[in-house]
Amino acid sequence: YQRRVHGGQHECQTVDAQPSLSGGIMVLVTGQLKADDDPPHRFSQMFHLVSEGSNFWVSNDVFRLNLG
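The chain above was modelled as a monomer; its predicted structure follows.
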């Protein structure tokens, strides 16, 4: 899917998830980020969702923009 972001847009190409030992969910997203007139750049983002009752919150978040 594609979504507008400030100054550009991003396209998520893969989303993978698996349960963590703590009862949360590890999520890995890869895709492309396009801003202004620059060529698209690949990105990856990993985050850990922790369960708290019937809700989840992000305990760790790693974003990498793959330049070059």
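The chain is about 0% helix and 75% strand.
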